[in-house]
């Protein structure tokens, strides 16, 4: 599932990127962020975040390591067990995996909610429209009628019947403060972040150290595979997960190249 073939090929000019280039995936990702900025979806600072992610992905070998694959299966089990699962979308996520997030929401019964660090009404609307163009029926986050407690910033704005009420939230490329505040609300937090030392994966119940472009389609594949599993099987998957071991495995891969 670590193949970029899984990424929907709907971005203009992608054909200009030579597919036989040894770092095709990274070039494609960069290109999507650039186009996200041009379309008013992604904040300019999204390019910095992308650069940080890209450096860690290079060190991880630009592949889904076994511990990340396991975390992605555990995340799928959590989402299937949840009463009110929500997938949080920011400008980078919308540019990189819009259709893939819609697929994951469908496979797990989760809601999609736009939640931005650099919040403006224009970007919220542009991202909601972009998700609807990729098949989303209902997109939360526009109303933003509730707040995450103890977080003094625009990013605290959430929907009362969305992230605020969620029991399980997927927060990709998240900043550490908000991840901590959501954890303090008692939510089961699934973080996708290429840097295992970032505060957000450090506080997450399920840290997924993988590129979102590979992680999300793989989570969907696991969710479809587990769709017929009974509750006790899903609970067993969730309970045997060792978050510390997952973080350690990613760090070892980055530091030594070993799996
Ligand atoms: N395509 C991607 N897939 C997964 N993670 C990514 C991707 N692009 C960037 N990232 C990660 O997303 C994070 C975005 O930065 P952010 O500002 O939200 O966190 P941070 O300040 O680096 O860390 P902290 O969690 O400690 O606040 C970075 O850790 C970066 O490695
Ligand atoms: C750029 C971004 C990764 C996302 O920003 P937004 O789309 O405004 O939520 C931000 O959190 C940052 O690290 O600077
Ligand atoms: N994500 C914006 C800056 C931070 O990491 O808190």
TrEMBL record:
Pathway assigned to this chain's UniProt record: Cofactor biosynthesis; coenzyme A biosynthesis
Reaction(s) this enzyme catalyzes, per UniProt: (R)-4-phosphopantoate + beta-alanine + ATP = (R)-4'-phosphopantothenate + AMP + diphosphate + H(+)
Residues that, per the record, bind ATP: 30, 52, 193-195, 199-200, 211-212
Major enzyme class: ligase
EC numbers on record: 6.3.2.36
Keyword Iron-sulfur annotated: no
A biological-process GO annotation: coenzyme A biosynthetic process
Key words, A-Z: ATP-binding, Coenzyme A biosynthesis, Ligase, Nucleotide-binding
InterPro entries to which the protein is assigned, alphabetical: PPS/PS, PPS/PS_sf
Entries under Gene3D superfamilies matching the protein: Phosphopantoate/pantothenate synthetase (3.40.50.12640)
UniProt-recorded Gene Ontology molecular function terms: acid-amino acid ligase activity; ATP binding
Superkingdom of source: Archaea
SUBUNIT field: Homodimer.
Function according to Swiss-Prot or TrEMBL: Catalyzes the condensation of (R)-4-phosphopantoate and beta-alanine to 4'-phosphopantothenate in the CoA biosynthesis pathway.
NCBIfam families: phpantohe_syn_Arch (NF041123), PRK13761.1 (NF010324)
Family (UniProt): Belongs to the archaeal phosphopantothenate synthetase family.
Protein name per its UniProtKB record: 4-phosphopantoate--beta-alanine ligase
Organism: Natronococcus pandeyae
